User: What shape does this take?
Amino acid sequence: MGNREIIEGEKQAILQTFLRLPVALARGKGAKVWDEDGREYLDFLCGISVTNLGHGHPALLKAVREQAGRLSHATNLFYQKPQVELAAALLDAAPFAQKVAFANSGAEANELLIKLARRHGAAQGRNEMIAFNGSFHGRTYGALSVSGQEKLHKGFEPLLTGFRHVPLNDLKAVEKALSRRTAAILVEPIQGENGVVTATDAFLKGLRRLADRHGILLFFDEIQTGLGRTGDLFAYERLGKSCVPDAISLAKSLGGGLPLSAVLAGPKVADILAPGGHGTTMGGNAVACAAGLAQLKVLRSAAFRRSSERGAKTLWQGCSAIQKSLPKAVLELRGRGMMLGLRLAFPAKPVALACLDRGLIVNATADTVIRLLPPLNLTPAEARKGLTVLKACIAEEASKTAAAPSKPAANNKRKSK
Ligand SMILES: *Cc1c(COP(=O)(O)O)cnc(C)c1O
Assistant: This one.
């Protein structure tokens, strides 16, 4: 089967809930992937920040093969060495945390954060959470309800109640939304799905102060920002001692390409659930945990971090150069490390499709943003090669929109054609 047959088969057999790019990916190696027709692409998306070591990293393959051959699943009715090893490594990497809970997806990890917040606040009748406009926390009912995007809620009401959404980077608004019922604040250090919108350090530190003053919890959703994506192993690290979260959720890259998520729980929430208070059959699957451990070791090695910094530097320099040469098309660069958004003056989707056509995989989010999430070991040469394609595609789209009768580029809601 080639691309065409697979796309046709998908339309017939799979629920039509995804806006997929029009190729079927077949295999990958490092920063390269090939589709089912044998065409090669440079992967600047990593399955949305999942394959952070690139495709087919030897350390990951070895760990997966060995564990799959030994025991692939045990259920949480038993103790499991791969879970214990990965949990210990995560706690070593994130010393604020005292315990780890594993699950399968990001949404599930955030569900647990909601449960922890409510359990923690139960004695004082605190069961509400404050979250942020534009945030994305997943698609299950709790995670969906806490996500600050109305377009995702439409048609699925009634949602879970007890969530208040306020503008990001607006401490006054948070203060106003706080009440005697507030149990926790949940924030993405950088909003990925919303177009790489960064919470400022001052804002995050302010949230910590507010949470402490009111005796409530501060949770970070690090599902996209965690595991090296922003240059630090976790995005909270750069904030120093004055802003340590009470828990974080991890997913996406955690299993090195296999489904795995976790909550890292600090002292206030590490021991508040009793046996039977939460559970999952597949969560912390042995093969996924073995892969996660192998990946974490690579991510934390000094050599890997140095080479990642070099790649990120080339990427940022290249994107700045694109912005300088196309200032009317590229309005803003956002993000940190290997998580980068280029806000365009026009819809980003046609640019992403043009890039794909020329062998570069990027992602369009929030209507006008091109999001780059390349492998963390992207080489400077690969970065330059990808950005040459990106620049050409942005320039081409810019000349098209300039040639068209001018309409002000709508920043919020794009009207359907
Ligand atoms: C992807 C994502 C989620 C949801 O993760 P799933 O594994 O798709 O459920 C939640 N929060 C953030 C910040 C994400 O990027």
Q: What stands out?
A: The first strand starts at residue 25 and ends at 29. The chain is about 40% helix and 20% strand. The mean pLDDT is 96.
